[in-house]
C-alpha cells in the first residue's frame, strides 16, 4: 500500500550536504594562509575532542547558558588550535572568526549526489517539505548558498528549537510547522538513532540513508533503507 504522506522532513549534514574536505584540512589551510604552521591530522583530532567537550558542557550551542552559537563555535575553533600547539592568541581570534564565516556558505559545503534531483521530484509530487537538523542558525544561509533553500517550507535547527535530535520535541515542532499528523509525515536522514529511530518514536515514518560500505542496521527493514536518495520515491510509492 502506498504511504499517504503529506510532509517530508530532511536531515542536512551527510544527507543533503557534506563537507568538501575534513575539518582538519580546511582549518590547517586557513591557518597556513595566515602564516601559522599546524598539522591537519593534529587539528582534526583536537577538533573532535574539543567539539565533544563543548557539546557536553554547553549543549545545543550554549543556547540555554547565554552563549551565542557564534561565540560557541569561535571558542571551539580557538581551543582546537591551542590544543594543536598554536600559541598566538590574537591571531587565533581573527582566524576563528574567519573560519566561522567560511562555514556559512558553499565554499566548504557541497550538495550530495542525487539530492537536488530528489528534492525537485518530491516537490513536483506535491509533498510539503521541511528541514530538521542538529545545526546552528547558519543553516538557512548555507542552504541558500548551496541552492537548496527554495525546496523547503521551513528550516528547523536544534538551536531554534532549543532541543536536538533524538529528542522527539524537535520532530513534534516540525509536525506543527508542517501542519500534519505524524502518520502523514516521513523523515529522511543518515543517522540510525537521531534520524530513523527518533522520528519513528513520535509516530512518523522514516527512511535511513545508508552510505555504501556501512554495516546494515539489523532493526531496519530493507524497505526503509535508501542505498541512495534516488530510491526514496520508489520506497514511498511502493
Automatic annotation (TrEMBL):
<dbReference type="InterPro" id="IPR051828">
    <property type="entry name" value="HAD-like_hydrolase_domain"/>
</dbReference>
<dbReference type="InterPro" id="IPR006439">
    <property type="entry name" value="HAD-SF_hydro_IA"/>
</dbReference>
<dbReference type="Pfam" id="PF00702">
    <property type="entry name" value="Hydrolase"/>
</dbReference>
<dbReference type="GO" id="GO:0005634">
    <property type="term" value="C:nucleus"/>
</dbReference>
<dbReference type="InterPro" id="IPR023214">
    <property type="entry name" value="HAD_sf"/>
</dbReference>
<comment type="similarity">
    <text>Belongs to the HAD-like hydrolase superfamily.</text>
</comment>
<dbReference type="InterPro" id="IPR044924">
    <property type="entry name" value="HAD-SF_hydro_IA_REG-2-like_cap"/>
</dbReference>
<dbReference type="InterPro" id="IPR011949">
    <property type="entry name" value="HAD-SF_hydro_IA_REG-2-like"/>
</dbReference>
<dbReference type="InterPro" id="IPR036412">
    <property type="entry name" value="HAD-like_sf"/>
</dbReference>
<protein>
    <recommendedName>
        <fullName>Haloacid dehalogenase-like hydrolase domain-containing protein 3</fullName>
    </recommendedName>
</protein>
Amino acid at each position: 500500500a502506498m504511504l499517504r504522506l503529506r510532509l517530508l522532513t530532511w536531515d542536512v549534514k551527510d544527507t543533503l550536504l557534506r563537507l568538501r574536505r575534513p575539518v582538519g584540512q580546511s582549518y590547517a589551510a586557513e591557518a597556513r594562509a595566515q602564516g601559522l604552521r599546524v598539522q591537519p591530522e593534529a587539528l582534526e583530532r583536537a577538533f573532535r575532542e574539543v567539539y565533544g567537550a563543548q557539546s557536553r558542557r554547553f549543549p545545543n550551542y550554549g543556547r540555554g547558558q547565554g552563549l551565542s552559537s557564534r561565540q560557541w563555535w569561535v571558542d571551539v575553533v580557538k581551543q582546537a588550535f591551542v590544543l594543536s600547539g598554536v600559541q598566538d592568541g590574537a591571531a587565533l581570534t581573527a582566524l576563528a572568526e574567519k573560519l566561522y564565516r567560511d562555514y556559512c556558505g558553499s565554499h566548504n559545503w557541497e550538495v550530495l549526489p542525487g539530492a537536488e534531483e530528489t528534492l525537485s521530484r518530491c516537490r513536483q509530487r506535491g509533498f510539503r517539505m521541511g528541514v530538521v537538523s542538529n545545526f546552528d542558525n547558519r543553516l538557512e544561509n548555507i542552504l541558500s548558498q548551496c541552492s537548496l533553500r527554495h525546496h523547503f517550507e521551513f528550516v528547523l535547527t536544534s538551536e531554534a528549537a532549543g532541543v536536538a535530535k533524538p529528542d522527539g520535541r524537535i520532530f513534534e515542532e516540525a509536525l506543527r510547522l508542517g501542519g500534519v499528523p505524524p502518520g502523514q509525515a516521513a523523515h529522511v536522514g543518515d543517522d540510525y538513532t537521531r534520524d530513523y529511530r527518533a522520528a519513528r518514536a513520535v509516530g512518523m515514518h522514516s527512511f535511513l540513508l545508508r552510505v555504501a560500505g556501512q554495516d546494515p542496521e539489523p532493526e531496519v527493514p530493507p524497505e526503509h533503507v535508501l542505498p541512495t536518495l534516488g530510491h526514496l520515491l520508489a520506497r514511498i510509492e511502493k
